[in-house]
Amino acid sequence: MIKDIMNANDSATPNCREMAVLKENFPSCFKADGSFDIERFKEFLSDKIAVTGEGYELKFLGKNYARLLASIDTTTVVVPDEEHNSKSENMNSENIYISGDNLDGLKHLLKSYSRQVKCIYIDPPYNTGTDGFVYNDQFNFTVEELSEKLSIREEQAQRILDLTKRGSASHSAWLMFMYPRLLLARDLLKDDGIIFISIDDNEQANLKLICDDVFGENNFLTCISRATGTPTGGGFDGLVNELDYMLVYARNITAAVINGLAMNEDDARIYNQIDEDGNRYLTRSLRRTGGEDRREDRPTMYYPLIAPDGTEVYPIGPTGYESRWICAPETAKKLEEDGLIEWRKTDLLGKKVWHPYQKYYLENRTKAPGNIWQDFFWPPDDTNHEFLWTDIEGNKKATRDIRDLFDGQKVFETAKPIGLLEKVLTIGSNDGDIIVDFFSGSATTAHAIMRMNAVTQGKRKYILIQLQEPVKPGSDAEKAGYTTIDQIGMDRILRAAVKIREKYPDTTVDLGFKHYTLVEPEQNTLDKLEKFDPTENKLFADKDILSDFGKPTVLATWLVRDGYGLTAEAEELNFAGYNGYYIGKHLYLIDPELSNKAIEAIVVKYETDGSFNPENVVLFGYSFTWTEMEALKINLKRLKDTEKNLRINFDIRY
Fold first, then answer.
1. Strand, helix or coil for residue 574
2. How far apart are CA 301 and CA 182, in angstroms?
3. Which of 120, 23, 217, 226 has its CA nearest to residue 438?
4. Which of 201, 248, 223 is nearest to 371 (CA)?
5. Distance from the Cα of residue 571 to its chain's centroid
6. By the 8 A CB rule, do 20 and 14 touch?
7. Tens digit of pLDDT for each residue in 159-179?
8. CA pseudo-torsion sign 258, 263, 264, 266
9. In whole angstroms, what is the distance from residue 216 CA to residue 202 CA?
10. What gap in Å lies between CA 639 and CA 3, rounded to an integer?
């Protein structure tokens, strides 16, 4: 388990994740000695894309180190909050809250949720100099180790290690902090997934460059400007900052879809015509206007339509030139059949002529979201506001939301408005999707999802990660009894659930969550792992190691590792007094003292139960003697000669 990971991490390099992808998809580009044949690789690409030796890229101190951090596996274990998770409102919940470092959390999630997340929203540290951001990490590389892994001089390795240990808030430190997290986040996204990242002026330019590097410049969707309503100093006495931003990227821009937003009455004013059934609509010319509106631009869209008097009408521009329609003939025919063409007499070169217009109905129509967001900050009855420059609601509203939930106390300083998250979720996800926030702070994302689900009886699910960051001494949060930020986030979810149930007493949506904590094994436990040698400990198992971790922790960590996620429950099975845990393709054996009767019971279960076919038998290696493991192996081999013809993978984990 942990020892295996530590051994694998010893050989990790900054590019091992990328090399694994290449080996899987381009095996013929690797020579017998394992080296990569770049010329052969270029041959694969030559007829598909242009290979260029020129371009530009973002470079910063520690970039390769950041890639290395994304490549090495986490040595944390997943500790379930058994008391919380067993409560009736939480035991079947599909929502997840993780307390721990998000770098570790993302690595665990990727083992079960790779390419399953539709929308990610994060609000990372802005690195303003006053937001408390400093870079520190717990990786204890020596100068020599880092120099070898990154293929750099020892002086460069020392500079990087100095940056990681001294609590730096430089641009390089911030980039080194964000880069591995974004690399991992990208691999969580579905093919049509979208990520929204809040940021302000301090790092917006750097974030854009790093996201171009991670997601691809071609997958950039937009940069949304948001009126915060809380002006701040901009480093120059004459100006203040009234905006922050959201960078929006797609995993794959060809697959991504941005949902429309519901229209309000102001939006609907342009639908000023009414048909015989009382339905509102507007019309737009069927002739292309603006750029590329000439016949030569799209010759196939220059064709005649039949006017009400039977005459042929061609698309003619205002000065008499041959123009084009906005659609192909078959589309125009379909519009006509569906009653979506309206003919009118219009003036053209001093004559009254027939002209077709397409009808657009208001019903079920949404509006495309723009990249300047201010509409949900003003009260609905305020029609006199000025564009982005008035005393608007924004982060102030988020502060009021916090105070309302926490008995008037401002227990969190930098929350985002619920309305902002609801808008993000509306355009970036659909019902039933998984949403991830790995800088969850006060858990606004969870609050927004629960409220949206309650209104629509929806089934969006969230996974939140929050570091157990201490609250500020003397703050309202400390006075209220909180010691860490994740405690505030979890309590907000609980309080918000109460409010939602009060407002929607008949709701049946999922308002609970499962809680897990990521924990590094203590040094005493690591020492035991290091000393344990299975080749020497043939007659005795080490029960202390299982006690150090706890069986629920081992099982939860393995379920995530093997792709079952954090909400799956393994079935507990009794084999002649010995308990095993079965799910999907895995049978987990964790407890010590596996008797011969228990081994026989396992084999009999395979032979007699047609629905019991786990291909992998996984053992917590410290719990078993060599004799027990050999007896189990020998007996499981019998299954190959039965009707099931099963070949069991025997997986011993340390």
1. strand
2. 45
3. 120
4. 223
5. 29
6. no
7. 888 888 766 678 888 999 999
8. positive
9. 22
10. 30
